[in-house]
């Protein structure tokens, strides 16, 4: 049997109520040369039975609960197509998503990963906003990824050869495992985005980006930056001045990112960001303006 061109990997943890919509959106793609694997990360709901109802078109793999990074790595090991697309169990794709991304990667061999825009929805599926508002990663993708952390696994299609070069997901990261991976990819490959809303991202109470993962986010995001600058091999070939500039910008931006995650006064984080790299405050001026307004409200 000929190998499919795309591996679709869906980690699932107690999301049976949404998983059917996700699977229907995959199976309705205009591009049909794919395999789809659901990695059940220890669910205790009806995930197994739901996947079984789809028959042989959808493969199923169970593992004891180990987190989304582990589930995605299991999916990578159990699939083989040259292009890999990830989808969370509570999100969906537009019918033409795979078709357009495959065509883009075929036509742009220097690009390692291509994203798309998406519609953010509430739990009931009502559209709220289109994201991202801007995509600054085309020029100097590695430095841009350091300054503007990005995840969006549900709209990513990545070459398997990229992952074979840079490694898979860091399973020690409960949060920001996606940003950590894209930082590694962006060091060696181009990054692109199709400015069309080809997916939905559901903001639900059980989403993998919420709950305990969100509470751990500041620590995990800092760990990603610490890990990068603690490994000289990651930055080999760059001058000492360049590494220091990147380091100061990365930690400056990290202070802004952490302030956005936390409730309360942002002034201490903004002050540290300014001391590390004033230029980053301008580069992230929209976030800074939002935080300053939040700080004034907290003072009031």
Task: Describe the protein.
With 300 residues, this protein is an alpha/beta fold. It folds into two domains: 6-202, Spore Coat Polysaccharide Biosynthesis Protein SpsA, Chain A (Alpha-Beta Complex), CATH 3.90.550.10; 237-299, no CATH class. Helices cover 45% and strands 20% of the residues. The protein has helices spanning 16-27, 47-52, 68-77, 97-107, 141-147, 160-166, 177-186, 212-229, 240-261, 267-276, 278-283, 285-299, and strands spanning 6-12, 34-41, 58-63, 83-86, 92-93, 111-121, 127-131, 157-159, 190-202. Strands 1, 2, 3, 4, 5, 6, 7, 8 and 9 form a nine-stranded mixed beta sheet that branches. Helix 2 (47-52) links the parallel strand 2 (34-41) and strand 3 (58-63). The radius of gyration is 19 Å and the shape is globular.
Keywords:
Spore Coat Polysaccharide Biosynthesis Protein SpsA, Chain A, nine-stranded mixed beta sheet, 2 domains, 12 helices, 300 residues, 9 strands, alpha/beta, single chain
Order of helices and strands: EHEHEHEEHEEHEHHEHHHHH
Give me the count of strands: 9
Helix content: 40-55%
Could you state the CATH homologous superfamily of the largest domain? Answer: Spore Coat Polysaccharide Biosynthesis Protein SpsA, Chain A
CATH topology (level 3) name of the largest domain? Spore Coat Polysaccharide Biosynthesis Protein SpsA, Chain A
* CA-atom Rg in angstroms: 19 Å
**Secondary structure category:** alpha/beta
Q: Could you say which overall geometry the principal axes of the C-alpha atoms support?
A: globular
User: What percentage of the residues does DSSP assign to strands (E)?
Assistant: 15-25%
How far apart, in Å, are the first and last alpha carbons?
67 Å
- The CATH class of the largest domain: Alpha Beta
| Tally of individual helices | 12
Uncertain spans, ≥5 residues at pLDDT below 50? none
How would you characterize the largest beta sheet? 9 strands, mixed
Domain count, please report it: 2
The CATH architecture designation of the largest domain is Alpha-Beta Complex
Q: What does the average pLDDT come to?
A: 92
């Amino acid at each position: 049997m000929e190998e499919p061109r795309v591996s679709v990997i869906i980690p699932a943890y107690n999301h049976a109520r949404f998983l059917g919509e996700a699977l229907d959106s995959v199976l309705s793609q205009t591009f049909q040369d794919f395999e789809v694997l659901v990695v059940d990360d220890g669910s205790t709901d009806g995930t197994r039975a739901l996947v079984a109802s789809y028959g042989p078109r959808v493969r199923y793999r169970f593992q004891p609960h180990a987190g989304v990074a582990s589930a995605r790595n299991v999916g990578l090991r159990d699939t083989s197509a040259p292009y890999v697309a990830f989808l969370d169990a509570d999100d969906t794709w537009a019918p033409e998503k795979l078709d357009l991304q495959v065509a883009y990667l075929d036509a742009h061999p220097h690009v390692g990963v291509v994203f798309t825009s998406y519609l953010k929805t509430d739990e009931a599926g009502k559209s709220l906003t289109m994201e991202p508002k801007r995509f600054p990663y085309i020029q100097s993708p590695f430095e841009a990824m350091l300054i503007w952390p990005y995840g969006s696994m549900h709209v990513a299609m990545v070459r398997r050869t990229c992952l074979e070069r840079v490694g898979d997901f860091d399973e020690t990261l409960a949060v920001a495992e996606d940003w950590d991976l894209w930082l590694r990819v962006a060091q060696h490959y181009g990054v692109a985005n199709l400015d069309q809303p080809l997916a939905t991202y559901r903001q639900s109470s059980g989403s993998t980006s919420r709950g305990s993962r969100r509470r751990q986010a500041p620590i995990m995001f800092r760990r990603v930056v610490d890990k990068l600058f603690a490994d000289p091999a990651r930055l080999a070939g760059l001058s000492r001045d360049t590494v220091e500039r990147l380091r100061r910008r990365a930690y400056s931006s990290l202070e802004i990112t952490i302030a956005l995650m936390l409730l309360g006064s942002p002034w201490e984080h903004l002050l540290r960001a300014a001391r590390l790299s004033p230029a980053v405050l301008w580069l992230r001026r929209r976030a800074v303006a939002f935080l300053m307004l939040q700080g004034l409200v907290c003072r009031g």
